[in-house]
Amino acid sequence: MRAYSVSESKRRDSYIKHHFEVGHLSYQERDQLGFLGEFACCQFLGIDWKDNIREDYLEIDSYDFIVKGLKADVKSETIPYSYAQKILSGQIKDNELYGRRLINKGQFSLLRKYDIVIFSFFIRNQLDYWYPIGYLEANIILNNYPPTFKRPDGGRYPFPGSPVPTSLLKPILNLT
């Protein structure tokens, strides 16, 4: 899967608009991570991820794949180990650092195309395993979590984004 994520990232590169930067990943690495997360999610849900590789990237897609009749988009991020453990154990609080899943403002309007958004992560600097967090209906995000710079803990996000509380996410096993 990793080799495919690299090749698809390269094929799509000249067609994609990069909405944000982070210090720990280059934009190529972020693109690869996105593909890797999508492929892993498909595999988890019993969908052949190779069937979802597009012929071209001339236009923005309408969704990543369909599961249980729902148009799904997968959001993947990297999270430091200590916060990842808190998320996986259910001990993360929504208003603490890494307690919300962030959708970049530049991608917010695309939510209208999807029925659900699936959130997932890789442990930072350890991209060997994909962790599903959960999913939420796109209309709930659109109607309740407009993009902002302000974090609930008083800090600032590195870019304006829609801060979706982790506690609201539904179990991904509902989609299997």
Could you please describe the fold and organization of this structure?
The protein has 176 residues and is an alpha+beta fold. It is built from five helices and seven strands; from the N terminus they run H-H-E-E-H-E-H-E-E-H-E-E. The strands form two sheets. A four-stranded mixed sheet has the order 1-2-4-5. Strand 1 (65-67) and strand 2 form a beta hairpin. Helix 1 packs across helix 2. The relative contact order is 0.17.
Short description:
The protein has 176 residues and is of the alpha+beta class. Helices cover 28% and strands 29% of the residues.
Structural domain count: 1
Fraction of residues in β-strands = 25-35%
- Cα distance spanning the termini: 21 Å
Average of the residue pLDDT scores = 85
Number of strands: 7
Structural class: alpha+beta
Order of helices and strands: HHEEHEHEEHEE
The major β-sheet equals: 4 strands, mixed
Specify Rg, calculated over alpha carbons: 15 Å
List segments where confidence is low: pLDDT < 50 over at least 5 consecutive residues: none
In percent, how helical is the residue content?
A: 25-40%
* Spatial strand arrangement across the major sheet: 1-2-4-5
Shape descriptor reads: globular
Q: List the total number of helices.
A: 5
